[in-house]
Design a protein that fits this description.
By secondary structure, the protein is α/β, with parallel strands linked by helices. Among the domains are: 154 residues, 3-Layer(aba) Sandwich (Rossmann fold), CATH 3.40.50; 157 residues, Rossmann fold (3-Layer(aba) Sandwich), CATH 3.40.50.2000. Helix content is 42%, strand content 19%. The chain contains 25 helices and 20 strands. Strands 13, 14, 15, 16, 17, 18, 19 and 20 form an eight-stranded mixed β-sheet that branches. A six-stranded parallel β-sheet has the order 2-1-3-4-5-6, with helices on both faces. A six-stranded parallel β-sheet has the order 9-8-7-10-11-12, sandwiched between helices. Keywords: Transferase. One of its GO terms (biological process) is carbohydrate derivative metabolic process.
Length: 670
């Protein structure tokens, strides 16, 4: 595979803003993995590109040979879609977006529409899109629908990492509370809102230090005028842009980060603050609602001066609140990814996908967070409690054994998993998604638990890590976790070897016979147990009001198409679909394992309107799969889809979907 890339950015690459720092850290991480990275900074004006900018991008792209691999930062890509389009057919182009250009603060409605349309036009010519937050991925899809410009390229989420940092000390008694704001001086960052909020409060024991370049001279002057007008010149300081050492010193003096932004595509400074153990006071603008973990800070609506003022007052006055939020920040600090892990995820996103999988992801596959959230409660209701309890009992005994050999830790692990702590259960969750499997099992397992989460989607992994913070075991104790953003195409991963129990949910139908053989061999080698939940059997049917099966020729015809489609390559070899469960059970029995099975079907009743969104998703998913399998029958399939959707909406039919759970345990303990 070609490991030479050119990264193109707008302006000088060494600018100290979140987006440019992200780009620089990813470049470093990719180089550490053996990639050759050439970084090109374009002169000219962006994003309202002038002739200098256009000519610079044209010259850069024309200088690259046929098939060269290029990453274009969104500020440059979205500004010049025609230039990108001229080269999209001969270059392998990846778009890197931090947030949509048209979502910048201070634009007129016409300017917003112009930038949205320009960016979507550029995305039509790229091979893949990488965004820095799941929020931005959702936002892009919303814009694509709004403007009628669907994005055909697969979208991957690679969230920023953090640099390991020492914990900033807590405030001493009677010490002024030092608030730190790290953001460029532009209207979107909201420093004017911050000054007004600070001016209106009655608390007097604070000092606010603002670091960030004056990117908007008029706005910077306005903020300084507000400081002077409210008599805060001795308490609010605009320090301007600074180097890394100065900023680190500021973090060490601070007691909280304040980020009053109207909108953020991710908000890297939030995780940087958490890496220092600092609580965060911010808004819910854009991705910030997702970026700040619960319990690690305070959030208010963007632009709400009174709410921000109240949050600042509470923080400055209440020692107990500050202590509580520092504890929450410390917990969040332990779950942050480093830049090496982000680099691995970025490399995964750059890897060309098998055509079938690329098409599936581009269309919005079943692995998207919305689908996973939709099915979570139904999975939990259908799963076998008996097999989960049996796994818990076996795990409690197994985790006290030292029979598993230690293995070397992986470079993109978040914790040192090569030396297992006696009495701790180590659990590997394959294809963990947003953490639904862990959410179900962790409260049913007693004793210390350390989860190792594996998924190819960095955005879903981030969501899973956030859920860890709230999870407790059967005795009410917290659990710990590490995450690995890797493809499951190979099971050669040191952290996986370290598990006592391997588990997965709703994964098995995607895998091949060779994949199953590799999994069973690895489990047997390390004497691991395996709990596989909600594996589809390949059977489904519609049901009447008494939940009896409906016999319908069109349903049977579409089911046959669906079963055939199931056996396509989904990225893990020729998929076994509904046959996979039986193959897995047979393979473990051949290894001398004790195998227990349970039927765990979905039973979506016509009389329950809360099930209709899931039934809609199922019908559309089955129809889409059938259309891929038999494109010549698209009209007939659409008629079937419409008929069944109407039946569901009218409350006439329900749906039964076959699933099975499996628990495989070594027959004889070593």
């Amino acid at each position: 595979m070609n490991r030479r890339f050119t990264l193109i950015v707008a302006g000088e690459p060494d600018q100290r803003t979140g987006g440019y720092i992200y780009d620089a850290q990813i470049v470093t991480a990719l180089r550490e993995q053996g990639y050759s990275m050439n970084v090109v900074g374009l002169p000219g004006r962006f994003p309202d590109a002038d002739d200098t900018a256009a000519q610079a991008l044209v010259a850069t792209l024309e200088s690259l040979s046929e098939g060269a691999r290029v990453i274009i930062d969104g500020l440059a890509m979205g500004a010049l879609p025609e230039v990108v389009g001229d080269h999209g057919h001969r270059l392998d182009i990846t778009a890197l977006l931090h947030h949509p250009l048209g979502d910048e603060q201070g634009l007129t409605s016409e300017e917003q529409q112009y930038f949205h349309r320009s960016e979507l036009a550029g995305l039509a010519s790229v091979a893949r899109v990488i965004v820095t937050s799941r929020f931005t991925a959702r936002r892009l899809n919303e814009l694509a629908k709004q403007y009628g410009r669907p994005i055909s390229a697969p979208i991957s989420v690679v969230e920023p990492g953090v640099v390991a940092a020492p914990v900033s000390p807590a405030a001493e008694p009677n010490e002024p509370i030092r608030l730190l704001c790290v953001a460029t001086l532009t209207p979107r960052k909201g420093q004017d809102i911050l000054v007004k909020a600070l001016a209106g409060g009655s608390a007097s024991n604070w000092q606010c230090d603002c670091y960030g370049g004056a990117r908007d001279a008029e706005f910077t002057l306005r903020v300084q005028q507000l400081i002077d007008e409210y008599g805060l010149s001795g308490r609010v300081a605009l320090h301007g842009e600074c180097d890394a050492a100065t900023l680190e010193a500021a973090y060490q003096r601070a007691h909280a980060l304040v980020l009053p932004s109207w909108y953020e595509g991710y908000g890297m400074v939030v995780t940087e603050a958490l890496a220092h153990g600092l609580p965060v006071i911010t808004t819910t603008g854009g991705a910030l609602r997702d970026t700040l973990p619960s319990g690690a800070g305070l959030s208010v609506a963007p632009g709400d001066i009174e709410a921000l003022q109240a949050a600042l007052q509470r923080f400055c006055r209440c020692t107990e609140l500050r202590s509580e939020l520092r504890t929450g920040a410390a917990v969040a600090r332990g779950s942050l990814n480093d830049w090496q892990a982000a680099g691995v995820a970025f490399a995964e996103a750059l890897t060309p996908l098998p055509p079938a999988l690329a098409q599936e992801l581009a269309a919005g596959s079943q692995f998207e967070a919305d689908w996973l959230a939709l099915r979570e409660s139904v999975d939990a209701a259908g799963r076998s409690q008996k097999l989960a309890q049996a796994a818990a009992a076996w795990l409690a005994t197994r985790s006290n054994s030292n029979s598993n050999s230690n293995s070397n830790s992986n470079s993109n692990s978040n914790s040192n998993s090569n030396s297992k702590e006696e009495g701790t259960a180590y659990i590997a969750d394959l294809g963990c998604g947003r953490g639904s499997n862990m959410q179900f099992l962790a409260p049913r397992f007693s004793g210390k638990q350390h989860w190792m989460l594996f998924d190819h989607d960095a955005g879903l992994l981030s969501e899973a890590r956030q859920r860890v913070l709230k999870l407790r075991d059967a005795r009410g104790q917290p659990i710990s976790a590490e995450s690995h953003c890797v493809s499951l195409a190979t099971l050669m991963h040191p952290a996986l070897d370290n598990a006592h129990l391997v588990t997965a949910s709703a994964l098995l139908d995607l895998v091949s016979r060779e994949w199953i053989d590799a999994l069973v061999s690895n489990c047997a080698k390390h004497r691991q147990g395996l709990l596989m939940a909600m594996s589809i059997t390949g059977e489904w049917c519609f049901t009447d009001l008494q939940f009896g099966p409906l016999d319908n020729d069109e349903d049977r015809w579409l089911l046959d198409l669906f079963k055939t489609h199931q056996q396509r390559d989904k990225g893990l070899g020729n998929a076994l679909g509904g046959d996979a469960h039986g193959e897995l059970a047979h393979a473990f029995k051949q290894q001398g394992y004790r195998v227990s099975e349970a039927d765990t079907p979905w039973q979506l009743k016509a009389s329950d309107p809360t099930m209709r969104p899931l039934m809609h998703a199922l019908i559309s998913g089955w129809a889409d799969a059938a259309a891929e399998q038999a494109p010549g029958a698209a009209t007939r399939i659409d008629q079937w889809r419409g008929s069944r959707l109407r039946s569901v909406n009218e409350g006439c039919v329900g749906i039964w979907v076959g699933h099975r759970d499996l628990l495989a345990l070594p027959a004889v303990e070593a």
